[in-house]
Amino acid sequence: MDERRTVKVSKYLSKHLRHQPERIGLVLDEGGWVEIDTLIAAASAHGFRFTREELDHVVAANDKKRFAIEGTRIRASQGHSVEVDLGLPPATPPPYLYHGTVDRNLDAIRSEGLRPMNRHDVHLSADRETATRVGARRGRPVVLSVDTGAMHRDGHVFHVSANGVWLTKAVPPQYLRFPEPR
């Protein structure tokens, strides 16, 4: 399977397993799972065909491990805008995590902190490199350090997804460390 096809199938899966399952007639269970055969049939009925082999390749090849397969079911690992309960237990974060963004968002972040926007949680990375890649999707990246140790001590709850993304409801501005202006 070539890289362009892999990306196309991955984006299709993200759209329908995270944001718009109803668009192709899917109903996710409370944990975000759907039967693989149901997904493939729904996609095909709506003009986007892919095989189980292609699906398995996309899941295995995705560097961010965006999807999880359990038996005959699949789900997105995190990043949903539709209501799901991933069933992730609370976790103790490392002292600092990181968030990638771009300059144009900094004023709002300084005043409001990090908010989940159209998702359920704010996504944080365990390392600067990953946060840099995340920020670079929207332009020239800016990496913020998040004092997650202090947040945790102050009662904020964290979860970590199967693919290592740290999740929390919001990050108030006092826990953020901004880089020096360029």
TrEMBL record:
Q: Which Pfam family would be a valid example here?
A: PTS_2-RNA
Domain of life of the organism in this record? Answer: Bacteria
Entry annotated with the keyword Transport: no
What are its E.C. numbers? 2.7.1.-
Q: What class of enzyme is it?
A: transferase
Q: Does the record carry Secreted as a key word?
A: no
User: Which keywords annotate this record?
Assistant: NAD, Transferase
Outline what the protein does.
Answer: Removes the 2'-phosphate from RNA via an intermediate in which the phosphate is ADP-ribosylated by NAD followed by a presumed transesterification to release the RNA and generate ADP-ribose 1''-2''-cyclic phosphate (APPR>P). May function as an ADP-ribosylase.
Q: Which family does it belong to?
A: Belongs to the KptA/TPT1 family.
Designated name of the protein: Probable RNA 2'-phosphotransferase
- Give the organism the record lists: Streptomyces osmaniensis
Q: What is the gene name?
A: kptA
